[in-house]
Amino acid sequence: MITLKGNKIYLRALEPEDLDFVYSVENNESIWEVSNTQTPYSRFLIKQYLENAQQDIYEAKQLRLAICNNDATEAIGLIDLFDFDPRNHRAGIGIVIQDQKERGNGVGAEALDLLVKYAFQHLNLHQLYANIGSNNKISLKLFTTFGFQKIGVKKEWNFLHGEYHDEELYQLINTK
User: Of the candidates 172, 109, 174, which has an alpha carbon nearest to the alpha carbon of residue 139?
Assistant: First the structure.
């Protein structure tokens, strides 16, 4: 796997040493709504996942990368390609920055830029899509800044905090 490096951050493959970080992300209830998680994950399951993380995207249909500051090896977030469909040249994309203090300083934008370029240039994808809750203004702004266009709304799609919320579907088509 190529290390994807930007000005502030780089993306790298997950390592066994990422167990505690992935465990904390997957079990952080405050971000379950963006990761579509319903239940906690055990360390055992995450350890198994990390042991199989070396699988090729063509096998796993997913690519999850750690987001790291250029001057560190510890992950500060995760970015994923999921539902990888090589026949139709498309995949879903999602991102989470774990630490609040790392948000809003361009880390997410740089990570998204690096992965979009990788998906289009190296995986030869034709399109990427993102499912974003209508109330997630930060993610909506991030993805639209990169040219993702809203193509639909799934009405009352997610049940959060006792209420139904819409989820918007965004798409970016590679025009090159």
Answer: 109
Domain residue ranges of the chain, discontinuous segments joined by +: 4-173
pTM, to two decimals:
0.89
Candidate CATH numbers 3.40.630.30, 3.40.1190.20, 3.40.50.1820, 3.40.50.300; the one for domain 4-173? 3.40.630.30
In terms of C-beta distances under 8 Å and separation of at least 24 residues, what long-range contacts does 103-109 make, across chains too?
103/138, 104/138, 105/8, 106/8, 107/8, 107/9, 107/67, 107/69, 107/76, 107/77, 108/77, 108/142, 109/142, 109/145, 109/146
With CA atoms as reference, report the closest residue to 156 among 140, 136, 129, 133.
133
Distance of alpha carbon 8 from alpha carbon 10, whole angstroms: 7
60-115 pLDDT tens trace: 889 999 999 998 889 999 999 999 999 999 999 999 998 778 888 899 999 999 99
Hey, how many other C-beta atoms are within 10 angstroms of the C-beta on 71?
Answer: 7
